[in-house]
Amino acid sequence: MYSGLNVISKYIHRQKIDRRINHLFPTHLYNSTKFAYNQILLSILLASLAGVNRINRIANFTEDSLVKSLLGLEKRINKDTISSALKHLSQRGARSLQAYLLEKKSKWLKESGLTSITLDADSTVSMVYGNQEGAAKGFNEKKKGAKSYHPLLVFVSELKMLYHSWFRTGSAYTSNGIDAFLKEVKVNLPGNIEKIFFRADSGFFKGQLLDLLEDYHWDYLIKVKLKNLNKLLAGQNWHIMDHEKGIAVCEFQYQANTWGRQRTLKAIRCIKEYVEKDFFGQKQLIPVYEYSCYVSSYNEKNALELHNLYKARSTSETWIEQVKSQLKAGQTLTDDFWANDILWQLNCFAYNISVMMRYRNKKFHRQEHATFRDWFIHVPGKLVKSGHQVEIKMYAHYYHKYNWIEFDRLVEAA
Q1: Which residues contact 39 (CB under 8 A, 6 or more apart)?
Q2: Rounded to 5 degrees, what angle do the CA atoms 222, 219, 208 make?
Q3: Taking a C-beta distance cutoff of 8 angstroms, is the pair 234, 256 a contact?
Q4: For residues 103 and 272, what is the distance between their CA atoms, to the nearest angstrom?
Q5: What is the average per-residue pLDDT within 183-190?
Q6: Which pLDDT band holds residue 279 (cuts at 50, 70, 90)?
Q7: Comparing 271 with 198, which gets the higher pLDDT?
């Protein structure tokens, strides 16, 4: 039994998530109607939190006695019902769900009390192994030429929250649609957010995005991507910052053909290795340099400071892996693009529910979801029904008993 789902279900109810989903996707009851949309969508949400993927496994998941009780099911939901319901919701359902999730995350962000946030943008390849609609060949490090989807994501780093996501075809370039994507983010930010710092890798280096960020008065830091970048940097005047480590920095003005004005690029150079070369019969060790170059609104920071600030974004890559590997985003698919979009959104929402449930306790918040799932959700118990009351009885000497009790109280007080 997934005993922790009982507490998570309480949290979902306190956050009015179940009621909003029921309001967004009302079910018209007919004699042939056996399951409501909210039961189907919540089963996917709970399955994701429990680490269950694929439609047939989600169907088996709804056979669990606790899941049946939480969702008000008389019998399990079969896989064809889940698949057909998602397809019936179509593009309109996907857009309605996206709008609600943005509204919900805006509320969470407002309740956090933050006034300054870091937005870390990234994209990720979600590989497929069939003929799913919208899947296409694109950049794929793991398997060249394989079909995939290529979602776009942005995190609020202070909360670890996945604030917005677009489910896209695999042929989409990293920054495709980023301007419209950030406009949706901006419109849905709560009014208490006064300062925003946007950070992204070289896939987002384009003048149109820089113009937009400057129009928004957002601070930004983006890694530079240019043809012949190393050749360009090799010809710059470098200032030594650390002789022992071979660290040097430079800065220079640059204007691409599509830019309306010049911007300052700042670069750092480190010694990657030494290679032995023969000069007029004498062996000499020649340094091989590794370069990193950035464009930023932080004019007062040098390249080394920007480089250290940029490295902090690597944590967002671990969050993406949690979304994909631990919450199973992109692993449950149908042959319909919009159904897959809804599945992706529900998996991402499951990640956010896990993160925001644990936010007010540092001990729990710093854990990965898989750790939280192992000690809190995947706990055996016995479902006991007495009258109209349903209780779960767990092993009295469970190793994480006091953590479990502490977290249960945390949710009760939320």
Answers
A1: 71, 72, 73, 77
A2: 55
A3: no
A4: 46
A5: 97
A6: confident
A7: 198
Angle at which helix 17-24 crosses helix 79-112, to 10 degrees, equals 120
Instruction: Determine the pLDDT at residue 29.
Output: 67
Q: Please give the Cα distance from 122 to 112 (Å, whole number).
A: 23
pLDDT for 154 equals 97
Give the pLDDT of residue 287. Answer: 79
Token pair of 4 as six digits: 């922790």
Q: Which two tokens stand for residue 141?
A: 């490090």
Question: What value, to the nearest 5°, has the Cα angle with vertex 325 and ends 40 and 223?
Answer: 120
Report d(CA 175, CA 284) in Å as an integer. 44
Per residue in 294-304, pLDDT tens? 999 999 999 99
Cα separation, 126 vs 128, in Å, equals 7
Give pLDDT tens digits for 160-181.
999 999 999 989 989 999 999 9
**pTM of this structure:** 0.92
pLDDT at 195 exceeding the cut of 80: yes
**Inter-residue long-range contacts of 383-392, CB under 8 Å, 24+ positions, other chains counted:** 383/1, 383/65, 383/66, 383/69, 385/69, 390/69, 392/1, 392/3, 392/6, 392/66
**Matching residue, tokens 């199973």:** 328
